[in-house]
Amino acid sequence: MPLNASISNSGSGPQNVNTGNGTQNNSNGPGAQFIKFNFFRVDPSINRQADKATSLQKEKADCLHSLCFPNIDVRRDDIAHAYPHTCEWLFHTTEFREWRERTDLPTHKGVLWIKGKPGAGKSTLMKHTLRHCQKVFGDRLIVAYFFNARGDGLEKSLLGMLRSILYQLLSQDDVWYEHFVPLFRDKEEKHKVWGWEWQQLQLKEFMLSEIQKWQLKPLLLLIDALDECNQEDVRAVVDFLERLSINAVNARATLSICLSSRHYPNIRMERTLELTVETSKDHGEGINTYIRETLIRDNMIDPEIRRKIGTEIRQKASGLFMWVVLVVAMLNQAYDKGRVETMQRTLEKVPDNLEKVFNTLLSKDGPNKAETVLMIQWVLFCRRPLKPEELVATVAEAGPENLKVLNRLIFTSENVQKRITSSSKGLIEVRKGNAASVQFIHQSVNDLLLRNKRLQTLDQALGPDPISATHGRLWVFCRSYIERVDPTLTSEEHIRELNDNYPFLEYAANHIFDHAEKALSGGAMQETIVQWLRMRNDRFGWWKTFLNTSGEHSYSERDKDAGLLYVLSLRGSQSLVRALLELEPNVNAQGGGYGNALQAASAAGYADIVKILVEKGADINAQGGFYGNALQAASHRGYTDIVKILVQKEVNVNAQGGEYGNALYAALYRGYTDIVRVLVEKGADVNVQSGEYGNALYAASAAGYTEIVRIFVKKGANVNVQGGKHGNALYAALYRGYTDIVRILVEERADVNIQGGKYGNALYAASAAGYTDIVKILVQKGVNVNAQGGEYGNALQAALSKGYTEIVMILVEKGADVNAQGGKYGNALQAALSKGYTDIVKILAEKGADVNIQGGDYGNALQAASAKGYTTIVRLLVEKGADVNAQGGEYGNALYSASAEGYTEIVRILVGKEANVNAQGGFYGTAFQAALGKGHTEIVRILVDKGADINAQGGQYGNALYAASYRGYTEIVGILLKKGADINAQGGFYGDALQAASAGGYTRIVRMLVEKGADVNAQGGEYGNALYAASYQGYIEIVRILVEKGADINAQGGFYGSGLAIVAFSGDAVSDGIRNRIQSCRSIQYSDFEDSNSEEVQRLVSELQSMWEPGASQAKPAALQSSSKMVINEAPARAQPWKILGIRP
Description:
Layout: E1 5-6, E2 36-37, H1 44-67, H2 74-78, H3 94-101, H4 105-108, E3 111-115, H5 122-136, E4 141-146, H6 158-172, H7 174-191, H8 200-210, E5 219-224, H9 231-250, E6 255-261, E7 273-276, H10 281-294, H11 303-317, H12 321-337, H13 340-349, H14 354-363, H15 369-381, H16 388-395, H17 403-410, H18 413-423, E8 428-431, E9 437-440, H19 443-449, H20 454-458, H21 466-482, H22 492-501, H23 505-521, H24 526-534, H25 537-550, H26 564-571, H27 574-583, H28 597-604, H29 607-615, H30 630-637, H31 640-648, H32 663-669, H33 673-681, H34 696-703, H35 706-714, H36 729-735, H37 739-747, H38 762-769, H39 772-780, H40 795-801, H41 805-813, H42 828-833, H43 838-846, H44 861-868, H45 871-879, H46 894-901, H47 904-912, E10 920-921, E11 925-926, H48 927-934, H49 937-945, H50 960-967, H51 970-978, H52 993-1000, H53 1003-1011, H54 1026-1033, H55 1036-1044, E12 1052-1053, E13 1057-1058, H56 1059-1066, H57 1072-1079, H58 1095-1108, H59 1137-1140
Parallel strand pairs: 3-6, 3-7, 4-5, 5-6
Antiparallel strand pairs: 1-2, 8-9, 10-11, 12-13
């Protein structure tokens, strides 16, 4: 018995009989128990599949992460939910119904454009529309983007919109993801080492292309606040959405677009449905609902007066929901201070213009007006959105000595919220999201403050240039805040403590130079700022340490020796750079990760600073830093204007060094064609060897930069130079299917027969990838169509193994050898058969392919086709003269393979062509045994009718009848018996068919066999005889059949010695008839038990013998229960009789 088997014995008591080092399988219940084997070895393929699934999940997460950005959906979350029943009117308008039902598409292309004045409630309406669509359009993908002029760069850009839309689409739909992920993989493969970002054009073109694929799920796209997009992007967004809608309609794809904006006089789409919010009567009803539900209710207010106030509010609102919200709040506050007359007077004074309402709020004098002005200035001109506690810290009156106390007292979430609302007159709100920040309640507030000298009105001291003056004021605050800190506190622990105690310190340190630059560029505080630059050394080192530990701008270990000029150049502080150079003219000072100020400015893309530095004598060829020199930095980052500045100053375009070796390589890694052209025209060496790809032409070819390849070959690049992963530029281009580049290279005499690379030769690579156009180019240039190489042996096998029919025809027409041997499949015919490409098999046969050629796993083409069930191909091969009796391969012959796999029609074809039905081969021995071993009844019948030897010996089961009985194939057993199968033929694990059927519990088969004369007492096999097998397995009905047919119950065999012993100790019930047969037995042999001398054995056997003696008393001995069952008592002494009797497993 195998070591890893578990033995379970039959019986009624608890059992624990195990052996081996595998997991045990014990039984604690009555009934038959079986020998079981452990199959817990994990198939390595399962681990590989799990690893692959994990890898794919990670790839998807990485892909989505590349599209995501901070605050990607914060604006949508910021917008308040619509007040109940105030926005439902939209869904009943004619325009919305037409858009929803997509009627008259040619006139509007599925686009609904909702327009309105500032404050009309468009964003709230759009958020409500999104929620409505999510409930109603369950069959569509629904994505939305809300532009935010008060957010960061991506929140108000076309690129941000595209990234957000695709992030949502890829998250929701596998088809969109599967189509997009190749772009991600390409980016990762090319640029992962150096980092990369999605570009606007690539994402636009992807969406415009994909939307034309009709099989995509219907898409609904909502875009809010187009007017809050960057001005330079607005027209591009509209053009994109219009092209998207047109492409969808032309492709009959379902796309619905709903967008909202202010009224644009000069930007429009040719075909849209338009709806104006403030002029809609139904919108007015929504305003009425809001007034009715939110205007203060009080028993002291006459209902008629309240109704009149509400009517006047609605009339003055002119459809502006924001105006209503502000005014209702003002009226409710007025009533809190007096009587209803106060409300009426307040309403009379409130202007009917939203900006004037803002003016009214800001014009109110009060004890905290200075704080109000300062808060507004911070929110208006902060360099990043401020956290609520940061904003309050800017207005809290506290010196260094009591700031910690103040921090503990006021910087609670509730206190901060209240102070912001109170001091800002309700014009500043706390923005939701992962990191809370503050913003104006509406974009209109920003617009108001920057128009009509509103800043000067608020703060008379700002002068004629209020913006630069305000930045000067903010710079002063940042400076004073930083100077509260002890500059000797530089450890990480100290800096963490400083951040905890000084909530504004991080912002101040990060943006003090930004505010100084804005102030100085506008002419504000020049002397003060210059003096500060002169005296900066006492805190500059602390400043860098602080930012490296906790700042937004990372100054790593490599920047610890960076000077102030370097830092200002890297940050783009043009005015500060100019001022510092007047104080400190060392323009070539070394230090920092980029080596010097010129390389830092070049890497950051600040062309004006580069000009200043060059004019002040910066060494344009200075070596050092990450990129090696300034030219390489500008080239890799794509700053064409900086490259032009440097080459005009006669920079060395071939200077070596840095991350990419030289400037030319740095530029082409990112595909910056204009920069490559500038460098080549200035003498950059196109044949220089360097970098991962070996040479520039290879790199451009591998990346698919067609125009750059043209530039290189025009300048004399060597098209056959070796290098890189794929060997040469030609291989690199065709590996990715860049047909235009391949054409350029072969026109420039690239060697089409050169050997090398992963695939061995160019034709093989193109054929394996299915690049038909490239194959045509290569054969036109005289490529050797029979060149050997690669996994498949040659180009022909590579093409036909993938089913590329057109390429196969091209190659065959050009003289490819259809009988060439070699490769994965052995020959072309077998390669075509690997996937059942019938048309290709026909082509090969017509071109003279030898249908009997040997090779491959299946030995020959006919066996391969038969094994895979390709009926049409089998018929074709037979008609072409394939030998139906050819031996070899995995199955031995074609008939065996078809029979084993159950392909009835193929079997008919083969036997119709005189296939030898008794040919030996394969696991089962013959086709006949293979068919019955798998239970293919119809095939068995066909083979028997064709003369299959039903008594042939061999194979796994020894003979046919045994195989059918072992498998329980009743119908096949019947066929074999009818055809005269030897019923007692020996063979197999169980010795003969009867024992096999008995062990398997196949009652019908056992009955058929004994009725046909099977020897019920035949000895041999695993169990010794059939009765023992049935008894051991607990098949009572089979035991009855065998006993009634004269089976010897004392016949020896198996572990227990006899079937009787099994019955005695198994606890199984037996019928009276069987018991009567057992009672005819004169004795039970003591040798049935190991411990035959034990008192218990002797007593039990004596009781049974006394019962079985002829004419014995009918009194039942203690060992027996009831008149119809014979079992062993379950008394403690006999609960486990096999143990008592010393039976050892």
